[in-house]
């Protein structure tokens, strides 16, 4: 299950997140979102846990933790996939015809 992790200090590494979330279960992937030009962290990322019960435990315990003087936000989420044009094509219509 994919978790969104936000309000991260820019110095936090993927290894740091891996170690932290490993306390709650098996971590299958970690990705911090970075700026394309500077490669600097944007302050959020995604952690994927192998089992739902581990993800629930991570959300219950890690959400609100103070890490490097910042209150971390952890919630259930998903990682966007596809190109921007694919996302636009999938977006529901704003118009309702009834």
Automatic annotation (TrEMBL):
RNA-binding as UniProt keyword: yes
This protein's record includes keyword Iron-sulfur: no
Domain of life (superkingdom): Bacteria
Key words, A-Z: RNA-binding
Pfam families: RRM_1
Region (Disordered): 78-98
Name of protein: RRM domain-containing protein
Domain RRM: 1-79
InterPro entries: Nucleotide-bd_a/b_plait_sf, RBD_domain_sf, RRM_dom, SLIRP/GR-RBP-like
């Amino acid at each position: 299950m994919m978790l969104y992790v936000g309000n991260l200090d820019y110095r936090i590494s993927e290894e740091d997140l891996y170690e932290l979330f490993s306390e709650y279960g098996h971590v299958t992937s970690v990705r911090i979102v970075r700026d394309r030009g500077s490669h600097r962290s944007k302050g959020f990322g995604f952690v994927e846990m192998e089992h739902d019960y581990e993800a629930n435990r991570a959300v219950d315990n890690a959400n609100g933790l103070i890490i490097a003087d910042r209150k971390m936000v952890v919630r259930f989420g998903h990682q966007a996939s596809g190109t921007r044009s694919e996302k636009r094509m999938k977006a529901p219509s704003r118009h309702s015809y009834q």
